[in-house]
Amino acid sequence: MLATDTIRFERLLPGPIERVWSYLTDSDKRGQWLASGTMEQRVGSEFHMRFHHAELSQTPMPPPERFKAYEEGVTSTHRVLACEPPRLLTITWAKQEESSEVTFELTPQGEQVRLIVTHRKLKPAELAGTSSGWHTHLDVLADRLDGHLPQPFWPVFSHQLAHYEGLARD
């Protein structure tokens, strides 16, 4: 947590940087770890992302009761705020009056790539859920890039959610 409304995650992933970039911007590859949806790499362009968490692993599992609304997937609208291939991408997180913003920064580190994900303008009630979501999605991305099959999304997410809710209480 960088501020009361900002979280940040870092991962060291197998490169090269163009490969990791393609998992951020190519619909089919992004759909393997986060959400599919064609995105034009141009500032100001709008795009949709289709989240279907059960499809992120070979062992689909239904969401916990609390997240049943996500069982059949959900689509959201986003906008590109900054795009400097293959190093920087900033998007709105869902198009609404007070959207939050996500920045992906890529930096080569030898044969690996440091990915920094910073999510800003979050409301306090969104912090635990958003943190556990990014933690789980980034674990799926790391598995995909390492050539491993990811664990089912919902059990991992539920474990992370309990962890982040516990941190919020402390």
Short description:
This protein is an alpha+beta fold and about 170 residues long. The protein has helices at about 15-25, 25-30, 125-145, 155-170; strands spanning about 5-15, 45-50, 75-85, 90-95, 100-110, 110-120. Strand 3 (about 75-85) and strand 4 form a beta hairpin.
Overall mean confidence score, pLDDT = 95
Structural class: alpha+beta
- Termini gap: 14 Å
Please give the order of strands in the largest beta sheet.
Answer: 1-6-5-4-3-2
CATH class bucket: Alpha Beta
Series of H and E elements: EHHEEEEEHH
Percent of residues in β-strands: 25-35%
Uncertain runs: none
CATH topology: Alpha-D-Glucose-1,6-Bisphosphate, Chain A, domain 4
Largest sheet: 6 strands, antiparallel
Q: At the fourth CATH level, what is the homologous superfamily?
A: START domain
Can you count the helices? 4
Helix content: 25-40%
Radius of gyration: 15 Å
Number of strands: 6
* The number of domains: 1
CATH architecture: 2-Layer Sandwich
Overall geometric form: globular
InterPro entries: ASHA1/2-like_C, START-like_dom_sf
Domain Activator of Hsp90 ATPase homologue 1/2-like C-terminal: 16-145
Pfam families: AHSA1
Family: Belongs to the AHA1 family.
